[in-house]
Amino acid sequence: MEENGGAGTTKWSISRPSAGTPLEVAGTMSIRAVLDRVFSSVDGSGPRPVLTLGSGDPTASPCFRPPPEAEDAIVEALRSGKHNGYSPTVGVLPARRAIAEYLSRDLSYQLSPDNIYLTAGCCQAIEVIISVLAQPGSNVLLPKPGFPLYESRTMFSNLEARHFNLIPDRGWEADLESLEALADENTVAMVIINPSNPCGSVYSYDHLAKIMETARKLGIIIIADEVDKLIENYINITNDPATFIQGAVPQIIANTKEDYFNKILNLLRNSADLCYNKIKETRGITCPHKPEGSMFVMVKLDLSWLDGIQDDLDFCCRLAKEDSVIVLPGSALGMKDWIRINFATDVPTLENALERIKSFCQRHAKLQA
């Protein structure tokens, strides 16, 4: 890279990432990069508000706001003056103890604080564990579709990413035969996301047992990306949780009422039903499996029915331009000609957005003989 200055030309030793390199690929195919491209298609002069079902942040909707107990605990921790310094690398002891006790409620054994390692959200947790596994020549088995950060972190760590399929017609179960075929002596781990992001499925105990048996047979570890109730909502209040956030964790866990969890689960359940039923009414898109355990649903595009739509990115950009609705192209998740819809929003917004999607599909339907 060169810069023209008053004293001549300065040549810097940094440059833009070359096409096809891990950094360049990760930058262009991240969820945020793809959504930015879709957002750029919105007609800013359009009369209707933009309805966003593409991002993964439910707190953008007031009905999914964290409970006041969480907010009060954070304010109290900050004002106490006890959590203004650096924390231990693994996290502060009271927070780790509270989380260990919370998670032990549903286990047949007791976790200790030493079993808990706090990170700056789930993204840093992925970075840490992939870094630990980063031995030269190793590979990691990743689900397709899945969460893109696993692949980008795998590439950054010079590991090979190998993708096993999830089967839509079987509740997005892992295709264990294809998984076994991908594994070799250099395979160090498999990633299992349950409940599934982005599919919304929840694996049965029988399928989880088969996954564990497969891992045992192959001699590889399972990176279990799981959600225990809604505790992640509190740990991820900021992108980089400060010490005072950790200081608030014990009170958040102790004081948040069960009614809050029940309310959120009922909202998600009702929105999932609404979304699934509306998709069934819409020609040109199909949903093979109703979501059971997350705020996302994967929807397949029928390009043989949709006139002039080239692929999932084209569908999403045109939908944004014509109807001001944002959904995520499945290509960002490894699933070309699919889209991901986030239904964690208020019901009127969801109904409006789904009605616009239906209208869009009707306008672009091919004339049938």
Automatic annotation (TrEMBL):
This is Aminotransferase class I/classII large domain-containing protein. Residues 49-227, 243-357 form the Aminotransferase class I/classII large domain. Keywords: Pyridoxal phosphate. InterPro entries: Aminotransferase_I/II_large, PyrdxlP-dep_Trfase, PyrdxlP-dep_Trfase_major, PyrdxlP-dep_Trfase_small, TyrNic_aminoTrfase. Belongs to the class-I pyridoxal-phosphate-dependent aminotransferase family. Its cofactor is pyridoxal 5'-phosphate. It comes from Miscanthus lutarioriparius. GO terms for biological process: L-tyrosine catabolic process. GO terms for molecular function: L-tyrosine-2-oxoglutarate transaminase activity; pyridoxal phosphate binding.
